[in-house]
Amino acid sequence: MKRYSALELIRQGLGGHRGWDRVWRKPEPKPSYDAVIIGGGGHGLATAYYLAKLHGMTNIAVVEKGWIGGGNSGRNTTIIRSNYLFDESAAIYNHALNLWNGLGQELNFNIMMSHRGVLNLAHDEGEMRQLKRRVEANRLNGVDSEWLDAKEVKNFCPSINISGDIRYPVLGGTLQRSGGVNRHDGVVWGYARAADALGVDILQQTEVTGILTEAGEVTGIETTRGTIRTPKVASVTAGHTSVMASMLDIRLPVESHPLQALVSEPIKPILNCVVMSNAVHVYCSQSDKGELVIGAGIDAQLSYTQRGNLDIIEHQMASLMELFPIFSRLRMMRQWGGIVDVCPDASPIISKTPVKGFYVNGGWGTGGWKATPGSGHVFADLIAKDEPNRIAAPFAIDRFTTGALVAEHGAAAVAH
Amino acid sequence: MFVIDCPNCGARDQSEFTYAGEAHIARPTDSENMTDAEWAEFVFMRTNTKGLFAERWWHATGCRKFFNMLRNTATDEIHAVYRIGEKPPKVTADLPATPAGEASIGSGNDAVKIMTRDEEAAS
User: What is the per-residue pLDDT across A113-122, written as a single tens digit (0 to 9) for each?
Assistant: First the structure.
């Protein structure tokens, strides 16, 4: 892998930029691999990278039915934070946050990580109590978190409206200063380039059509480009987790819903942090291009169409106007939907399955992006050792039988 | 936005309705003898079908009655509406050719909808 640097940029510039290598290869599928990861998004590519780098499994492939990063990795609002209430969640999201720090250096790819701070607003007394409790829980878990009153919120984020004459006035909020945003495409490409350099085959436009088993053990996959033999298959397919599991008659507790987002026309810097509001329900940040990136909740119906309904967007725009009347004249440029697989307890599934050699990483619901490096890191560990580590163990499928749910609905700082 | 044909009230906008999840999940009758795994199956496990899917809706701001609907979750096309207690009617739907594929229309997933040679030549 040719290292990217300012010096290399100048050198290539003098040569008319004709000397750059392809960022990753375009290999033909081999007849067999030591492991195959289904899904070339951030989580899947991170899994492949850590499998190759930390566990020495370099004879592996990532199969992707479209192009890498074309699913939810390219459709999220890129928010990074780890201020979850429960110990299990704090452990995995903080693990991810620690890996985000320095990831650009490690991958030698600019992921445009910006620790600009994430504000979670409170609009009533009950919400204030709940958010203050979460600040304390976060601190006990080593997650940086602090309570701001309304004036301190205004000081930190001057464009926000804290006047008392709106329907749900801002009474205060929590701030995680280490939270922020990054560039999702950069992360996908960085992981792909680094994994490819370690020998991982990235097979795009290759759709899995079946999973082969013998005597309850995985032996390979059928794809649109032929059969591939492998003893380990790991599904990291976000909205399609159930579709993959159903190939082995495994039932999962997830439902797939559209989650929409939209961006405004680009404007000069006005919003210096990420603002999230549970009660009026919108979250917003400003990209480096100047566009406001706006998201909110899922569409209620189960769907795989990657499209949602307009009333959801109308509601989140109304919420945005309440918090930021200054944005009222902005025009919206683009709107899209991704398909998220939501678990009943709003926590992910990182797990072995009843079929030996088949592993599932999914159910991240509306909040998977922030976990990307942590998810890939612990999932690679699970695939390599066939046992979950301390961080992954609470997210096994059997929690729906034992009752040991990690119930982050409502506790995770946003409504789902 | 869906226009949903409520069996009692007729065609109304989706915003009048509340989604109520997968249909035809019968409440167990032998609940005192069920294992934890059987409870997990009833309470949590779902089919999450990509394709023809039977689901319940509740006309919250209309007749306030539950009913069933048959919808293609790969295209969002509504194929039938029928009452609680009835079986889903037989319909033909535009389904994806492969389990994780996309139907010919109705999907926003351009990364997967691969153009045919004719379409490529035309574009």
Answer: 999 999 999 9
From A302's Cα to the closest Cα of chain B, the distance in A is 7
If pLDDT is split at 50, 70 and 90, which confidence band does A415 have? low
Give me the pLDDT at residue A296, please. Answer: 87
The overall average pLDDT reported for chain A is 95
Partner residue opposite B1 with nearest CB, options A303, A310, A344? A310
- Given A208, A302, A306, which is nearest B100 (Cβ)? A208
pLDDT at B107 over 70: yes
Tens-digit pLDDT profile for residues A338-376: 999 999 999 999 999 999 999 999 999 999 999 999 999
d(CA B89, CA B55): 13
Which CATH entry fits the domain spanning B3-93: 3.30.1330.20, 3.20.20.80, 3.30.2270.10, 3.40.1190.20?
A: 3.30.2270.10
Nearest-angstrom CA–CA distance, B98 and B112: 11
B interface with A, Cβ–Cβ < 8 A, is 1-2, 14-15, 18-19, 21-22, 36-37, 39-41, 43-50, 53, 55, 71, 73-76, 98-101, 106-112, 114
> Cα(A370)–Cα(B118) distance, rounded to whole angstroms?
41
Q: Mind telling me how many Å the CA of A347 is from chain B's nearest CA?
A: 13
Residue at token pair 């892998």? A1
Question: B117 pLDDT exceeds 70?
Answer: no
Write out the two tokens for A257: 């819903």
pTM over 0.90: yes
Contact B108 A306 (CB under 8 A): yes
- Cβ <8 Å between B37 and A401: yes
Domains defined for chain A, CATH in brackets:
29-79+184-254+345-411 (3.50.50.60), 115-180+255-340 (3.30.9.10)
**8 Å CB contact of B108 and A336:** yes
How many CB contacts within 8 angstroms connect chain A with chain B?
113
Q: Are the Cβ atoms of B48 and A255 closer than 8 angstroms?
A: yes
- What's the pLDDT at A414? 59
Return the pLDDT at B108.
78
Secondary structure E strands in A134-281: 146-149, 172-176, 180-181, 201-203, 208-214, 217-223, 226-229, 233-235, 255-264, 274-277
Radius of gyration of chain B (CA): 18
Query: In terms of Cα–Cα distance, which of B7, B75, B2 is closest to A300?
Result: B2
Query: Does position A2 have pLDDT exceeding 70, yes or no?
Result: yes
Decide if B111 and A66 are in contact by the 8 Å CB cutoff: yes
